[in-house]
Fold this sequence. Notes:
Blueprint: E1 6-12, E2 25-30, E3 37-40, H1 46-53, E4 63-67, H2 73-76, H3 79-88, E5 95-99, H4 103-114, E6 126-130, E7 136-139, E8 142-148, E9 156-162, E10 165-169, H5 177-182, E11 188-192, H6 211-221, E12 226-229, H7 233-238, H8 240-248, E13 255-256, E14 263-265
Parallel strand pairs: 3-4, 4-5, 5-6, 10-11, 11-12, 12-13
Antiparallel strand pairs: 1-2, 1-14, 2-3, 7-8, 8-9, 9-10
Amino acid sequence: xxxxxxxxxxxxxxxxxxxxxxxxxxxxxxDSLDSDAVLLDCGFTxxxxxxxxxxxxxxxxxLSAIAITHLHGDHxxxxxxxxxxxxxxxxxxxxTILGPDGAADAVPAAYELAYPGSYAKLPFPxxxxxxxxxxxxxxxxxxxxxxxxxxxxxxLAIRLEREGKVLCYSGDGAPSPESATLAKGADLxxxxxxxxxIGSDPDGVTGHGSVERSIELARQAGAHRLALVxxxxxxRHGRYDEIERMLNTAGDVHAFAPQPGCMCRI
Length: 266
């Protein structure tokens, strides 16, 4: 069996207002190390989930970067909590935050609202790096690529590569031609699947995807595994039997709906 290069932990898998599941957030790290990790999104409730599910040895200086897909609260407003806790836990090493236009202003502003006067006192430096459609960023052994999805606010899906392995994370939004291209050949595709079927929003005007559309995307992209995340709370908790039927009849697509704390090796 081919050796894994990356571990992916689903810290949270819920949508913005799901009281049972933390906001969707993924942690990627080298398979052999509890360090050099990348956090993908950190919403209102995801920061506490980081401390609940991340390896204990990672929690101070083991996080290398945080990548934000877009500036909706359920994808970045957990950062004041997380950054403050990292400081209290003794972090001293530089942290890189990657995000779209506005992130370098929004994160400090949110921090100052949460803890006035504290951002400048953080015991570790923060470096902001701008992500944009079509941009490729290399950081140590990580490679990031970005593409817009179909969402109400600019959302940049992320393709994260390490040692030939590929994690693709949608953030929010129905797939676009650009984000579909980004997903090609992914070892693991974590795709926002808010609705149950395409009929719930056939034209994608709401800026959200569906379970059915995600399965179709994974098949077309040749993704090895598909994780359904950010499912509407009414669907996840009220119609899960229908989700299971769709997963069981997905045919050649290896699809699943992860629980918080679920870990995949790729």
